[in-house]
Amino acid sequence: MEKRTFTNILITLGVLALIPIGFWLFAYLQNQHVDWSETYITKSKEPYNNYMVFNLLKNYKTEKEFVVVDDLLTEKLAEEEIKNAKEPISYVFLGDFPYLLDEEIDSLLNFVEGGNTAFFAANTFPDTLFTLLELDNQVYQYVYDSLVATNFTNSALLEEKDFVFNHSKRNESVAHSWNYFNDYLLEKKKTNKALGFLHKKTKMNKADTYRNKNNDNYQNEEYEEYNENYEDENYNDQYTDSDIEESEENYMTDEFSNHTNFIRVKYGKGYFYFHKNPVLFTNYYLIQENGKKYAERALSYLSEGDILWDERSHYYKQIKGEYKKQGRSPSPLSYILSQPSLAWGYYTLLISALLFVIFRGKRMQRIIPILRKEQNTSLEFTKTVGQLYYLQKDHKRLSQLKIRLFFDFIRTKYHMNTQHIDEDFRKKLSERSDINRELIDLLLADIQKVNGQHEVSEWLLRKIHTQIQEFYTHCK
Q: Residues 392, 409: one domain?
C-alpha cells in the first residue's frame, strides 16, 4: 500500500471518529443555552414552550384519541369521524396568536355550534372570530408586573389561596404583560361568562412604571424594537416627574382589582373558551405544583370526547414557512428531519458521503491480483511413470528415465555438459557436488552398464536407484 493512500485512510478514519464527538459537543453546548423566548413549540423543553402541556393533554384521557391537526382545519373538521362523533370533541390552541383563515373560522363556528368545544389560550385572537361571535373589538389591556395572582370564579375550581405566578428570565424576576379582557365583553351578552381572573400581587415603583434607558433588567422582548427606535438623548425628557407621579397614582388605585382573563362564550350547542395568558400553560409553570394545578383546572372545561390539538396555526410555523396551504403535500424528508435522531443520522450519512468523495473519489491504481506460485509436478509425474514401467517389468526404460533425470539435475545445478563423460567430468562433478570420487565412479560405471545392455535386471535397477538417491541426499 502506498504511503499516500495509507495517510488518506488515517485522515478519513480520524474525521469519522470526530463526527460523533462533534455532535455530542454540539448537543451539550446547546443544552447549556436556555432560550427564554415565548415560542410555544410542542417539541421544545425550553421554559416558555408547550412540551409539557402537549404531553399532559395527550396522556390525560388514554381512552380517547388525541389528534394533532397539521392540515387545514376545514379539512380536519370535515372528516366523517368528527362530524359523527358520539361525544363532544374539544379543539385546543395554545400559543401567541391563532393564524386561522376565514374558511377555517367558519368551519370552527359550525363545529362548536353542533355541541363541541373550542379552547383558545392566546395573547390575541382573530378579529374575524370575535366579530362573528358579536364580541367587542379587542382592546389591548394588561397588568404589567413580574408577580401576578390568578383564580377561578367557579366554586368547584376556586382555590382558597390565589395561584401566584412569578415571571422570570435567566433566573431573574422580570416584568411581564399579563393580558385581560375588556369588561364590556361580559356586559354585552349575558351568555358570556367570566371563568377566571387575575390581579397585581405587588406594588411597582416609578422605575418599574416607565423604562429608563439605563435599566438593563427590562427584558420584555415584545417592546425591544420600540425602545430601540425611540431611545435617544431626549428620551427621559418625554415624561415629566408630574406625569409619572400622576400615572403611578392612577395605576396603583387599580392595583388589587380583579381583571377577567378567562371567559366562556356560548355558541349554539357548544362553547368557546378564551384564555388571555397562554404563558401560564408553558413548561416553566407546569413543572411547578402550583402551575400544574392551575392548568389542570383550566383545561377541565374541555369536553369528554377526543381532543384536536392545533399545531398548524402557530406563529413559529409561519416564520419557518411551515404554514401548509391547501393541496400542498409535505416534503418526503419532512418526517426524517422532524425527528432529531433520524435527522442526525441523515446528516451523518451526507457528511460521510462527502468525505468519501474527497478522499476516495480520485483515480487510484487498480488492485493487483494475487498470483499463486506454480507448483512443480514433474516429480509426481516421474513417480507415476516409474510406477507404470515397474509394473510392466520394463526395467530398461525405467533405468534410462532415472539416468536422464539425474543428468538433467547435474546440468541444472552444476552447469556441466553431460554429453562427454571423461576424467575431467568425473573430477569436476566430485568437486562441485562434494561427493566421494569412488561413489561417482561406481555410479557412472553402472550407468554405462545400463546403456550397454539390452535388458536390465531388477537388481541393477535397484542399485542405480539407490546410488542416485544417495547422490541427491549428500550433494551440496
A: yes
E strands within 244-306? 259-267, 270-275
Same domain, 125 and 266: yes
Closest to 57 in 3D by CA, of 286, 296, 289, 288: 296
CB atoms within 10 A of CB 31: 9
Specify if 235 maps to a domain. no
| Number of structural domains the chain divides into | 3
**Which residues have CB under 8 Å from 189's CB, separation 6+?**
134, 265
Which positions ≥6 away from 199 have C-beta within 8 Å? 143, 148, 149, 255, 256, 257, 258, 259
pTM of the model: 0.55
Q: Mean pLDDT per segment of 10 residues, for the chain of length 476 residues?
A: 62 73 67 77 89 89 84 88 89 93 93 95 91 78 89 91 89 88 73 85 43 33 34 35 38 60 92 95 93 93 91 69 45 71 85 79 70 74 67 76 87 87 87 88 87 83 86 87
* Pairing, β 90-94 against β 117-121: parallel
Query: Which one, of 438, 445, 456, lies nearest residue 400 by Cα?
Result: 456
Distance from C-alpha of 157 to C-alpha of 160, rounded to nearest angstrom = 10
Regarding whether 13 and 94 lie in a shared domain, the answer is: no
Task: With residue 309 as reference, give the H or E element that holds it.
Answer: strand 307-310
Residue 200's H or E segment, with its range, is: strand 193-200
* In a shared domain, residues 94 and 165: yes
Burial of 12 (0-12, 13-18, 19+ CB in 10 A): middle
Q: Which residue has the cell 381583571?
A: 259
* 321 and 281 share one domain: yes
* Contact by Cβ (8 Å): 402, 464: yes
CB atoms < 10 A from the CB of 426, how many? 15
Q: Which domain holds residue 263?
A: 35-208+245-329
The answer as to whether 118 is a domain residue is yes
Domain presence at residue 240: no
